[in-house]
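User: Run a structure prediction on this.
Assistant: Running it now.
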Amino acid sequence: QVQLVESGGGLVQNGHSLTLSCAASGRTFSNYAMGWFRQAPGKEREFVAALSRSGARTAYADSVKGRFTISRDNAKNTLYLQMNTLKPEDTAVYYCAADFRPSRIVVLTTLAEYDYWGQGTQVTVSS
């Protein structure tokens, strides 16, 4: 199985930027479709962004489209989430997720499609 560890969270001001990282270990990272999800207090975990094995295909939630960018470096076994123009409503615990997929182009946008999850990193955006 693959182990995932998120980092890069913190407290930022409204309108500022932050980059999250997710370090993967245990299996061949390039064999996994990857995604970011978030969970705000009192709310269900929701989809944020997803990326295919090759990195060629992406998907974003409407709420982050145009502000967030998901990417991966298969040589470094790392997934990233660049978050720009952050808003207080982006405050949440952010989780990375992985799922083994033969297809290099599939993107996975629902929680149920992912088998592996990190422990999460807190992002707080002050108004």
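The CA atoms of residues 48 and 62 lie 9 Å apart.
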